[in-house]
Amino acid sequence: MRHSLLGGICASGVVSLAAPALAAPPRTTVPEIAPTARPSRAQAPGPVTIAPDGTPTEVEAAPTDEIHFEADKVDYANDSDVVTAHGNVILRRAGQTVRSDVVTWNRKTGQIEATGNIRSVDESGNILYTDKVELTDELKTGAMEDLLVVLREGGRLAARQASRDASGNLTMHDAAFSGCTIQDEEGCPKRPSWEITAVKVTWNQVTKKVRYSGATLRVFGIPLLPLPGLEHTSDFRAETGLLIPNIRSNASNGVEFAEPFYWRIAPNKDLTVTGHVFTGALPMISGTYRELTGIGPFQITGYLTRSSAIPVYTKVDAGSGVGTNQFRGYLEANGRFQFNENWSLSIYGRYVSDRTFLRRYDITREDRLRSSINLERIGDNSYFSLAGWHVQTLRVGDKQGQVPLALPALDWRYRVATPGIGGHLEFQVNTLAITRTDGQDTQRAFARAQWDLRKVTPMGQEITFTGLLRGDLYHSDGNAATTTDLYRGQSGWQARGIATAAIDVKWPLVGALLGGTQVITPHVQLVATPHLRNITIPNEDSRAVDLDDSNLFSLNRFNGYDRVEDGVRVTYGFDWSLIRPRWKITSTVGQSYRMSSEQTLLPDGTGLSNRLSDIVGRTDIRYRDIIQLTHRFRLDKNSFKLRRNEIDATLGNHRTYLEVGYMRLNRDMPVTFEDLRDREELRAAARIGFARYFSIFGSSVVNLTRKTDDPVYGSDGFQMLRHRLGLAYTDDCLDLSITWKRDYVTTGDATAGNSFLFSIALRGLGTR
């Protein structure tokens, strides 16, 4: 019969085997008395040992190999030469303790026997419970029946029979292990969510390894998975061996069985190698190497297989269904090294053999892979960065030759105080070289000096003065390869000088409202920049411009450095907040007006192309951790039509919640601006908890973009991209879930269809 981790009778009827661990016995000693006396614990002066005649003798210090004990009563039988200790007997030796109701020591045979409510603690802090056990003179236990071992780092081992050899190694028969608690809040026994049963379990006290023979994983009492060769450490440190396998399926590869093998090379380095077997594709191998060096960590991950790949360089290729067998794979590496308190190096590299590998094998759904290297120095008043960037496109129709390589990208900044006039002065030097194998190449360098002074008037106004000077130098060639005219610039050498002056005023007004505190902050900014030769400068980093609440009061509403907003403009708006117990509401609304009537280089649809800008704003509402709502908007200045409508809402708690995200960009942008096309998308996710430990969860992404908004990549107005639905069980020691996912878009050999994932996480053993 399989052994259970449960015990006997609790406080309301039954007590678990683990119950003795919850209440430690009183720590008292036996006074100097005759063997048959009944001492009072209040008279106990200190630890004692047993003299040859059987009388207890108090000692001040003793060698570590002697056994000290405490008891309520000690009897000595002269004829049999047996010493018996009764009542709360505690034996100690070199960090070990044994607590029992009765301990009998046969001085002739040397046998020590403990009976009744035994609790033994070894040097590592692991606790053993049983009712009867034979002990050696080193307090090593011998044969036992019906025992429970509570490991210091968590987890319990129970067995019907067990024995311990002279080295302290424990062998258990008809055993069970679990990382779950076996008592409920009332102290009554409960069946663990999962347990591993085994015919035989050996616990090596030297290597701290627990090895199983005939092991089976049982979840809710149901045999789920055989675990041949299962082994783990009793202190749950990482150890070489097989991990829990992974099982899933999808439409491209069929059923997948993945078995990881973990190799602990050293305390600071390890390697995990996983074999993937598919019913609908050839096998794949993957691995992750990790190491913590003296200056920082790094890891390398790789995948390799051979399968049929369909190119997706154009839409015709993607839909052809014609593929070729080839070796395919993915490599990713990252690390961060701290040379000293100032200097550090960050590396992040990613490369994939083709554009559909990652999607087909469900590794990631990113459409671009970014790689970078960055050498940084951060000082008290300075910053230095020497970096490089590479991007690999995975998008259908994109040409890799037109994707830029940025190397080198240098940025240096230094900030100093300005005595006499106040404020601080920041200097910046920046260079960037962008290279394309089949497109425009651009090199840029500029130097900037910016002075900022912040003052608070006696009436509470916050005033910031800013002055900026910047000089730019550009060189470009191959400009004709850039399809959008406004992005090209003129080939050859180009120079530009920039001067900007600004004054920014805020006036917080505080008052009471609805039992809380409200703050209204009017905000006005004036920015002046002389006319610039923007059109002659190549535009590499300032393309996706769009007015919103985050850049409304920026000195330059263009993102990046290549485009600078010139002319004189005034920006106005206000911030409002209301803080009540459990509630917090914040809101921002603003607009800008450009004094100049000259044509701007900002495209129609950005909200900035006319003298009077669109109206932008943002509202955040939060009630405790139950309601979180964020709304961003942009209103057309003439028709008040929503040009940007973005909502992110979360309702509920960690067990039951609803998340909704909606975005609508209706900017009427010309299709020639590929970075600024209109979009409409709906995202939703929900989880419903029930029956204490169970929950149902799901999520979905829907493309609502119409062809009139985006004739190139637009859908018919309702295109389901993907969704998932699952059932999960989560308690204090087990996470179990079954997930159904469906993709609705086929991209090359990454086929649309259903996929299923079974995931299990066991506290103390791992996750798969």
Approximate strand percentage = over 45%
Report the strand count.
45
Query: How far apart, in Å, are the first and last alpha carbons?
Result: 29 Å
Whole-number mean pLDDT: 85
Figure out the total of helices: 3
Biggest pleated sheet: 26 strands, antiparallel, barrel
| Low-confidence sequence ranges | 11-54, 58-63
* Secondary-structure content class: mainly beta
Overall geometry comes to elongated
What is the helix content? under 10%
Give the radius of gyration.
36 Å
Structure description:
With 768 residues, this protein is an all-beta fold. It contains three helices and 45 strands. It has a 26-stranded antiparallel beta barrel. Strands 3, 4, 5, 6, 7, 8, 9, 10, 11, 12, 13, 14, 15 and 16 form a 14-stranded antiparallel sheet that branches. It is elongated, with a radius of gyration of 36 Å. It starts with 47 loop residues before the first strand and ends with a strand.
List its traits.
single chain, about 775 residues, mainly beta, 26-stranded antiparallel beta barrel, 14-stranded antiparallel beta sheet, 3 helices, elongated
Question: What is the strand and helix layout of this fold?
Answer:
Layout: E1 48-50, E2 56-58, E3 68-70, E4 73-77, E5 82-93, E6 96-106, E7 112-121, E8 127-135, E9 141-150, E10 156-164, E11 170-178, E12 194-204, E13 209-213, E14 216-219, E15 222-226, E16 231-233, E17 241-242, E18 246-250, E19 254-266, E20 269-278, E21 284-293, E22 296-309, H1 315-318, E23 324-338, E24 343-352, H2 357-360, E25 368-378, E26 382-393, E27 405-417, E28 424-435, E29 441-456, E30 462-477, H3 485-488, E31 492-506, E32 509-513, E33 516-529, E34 567-580, E35 583-594, E36 615-623, E37 627-635, E38 642-652, E39 657-665, E40 679-690, E41 694-703, E42 719-730, E43 734-743, E44 753-762, E45 766-767
Antiparallel strand pairs: 1-2, 3-5, 4-5, 5-6, 6-7, 7-8, 8-9, 9-10, 10-11, 11-12, 12-13, 12-14, 13-16, 14-15, 17-19, 18-19, 18-44, 19-20, 20-21, 21-22, 22-23, 23-24, 24-25, 25-26, 26-27, 27-28, 28-29, 29-30, 30-31, 31-33, 32-33, 33-34, 34-35, 35-36, 36-37, 37-38, 38-39, 39-40, 40-41, 41-42, ...
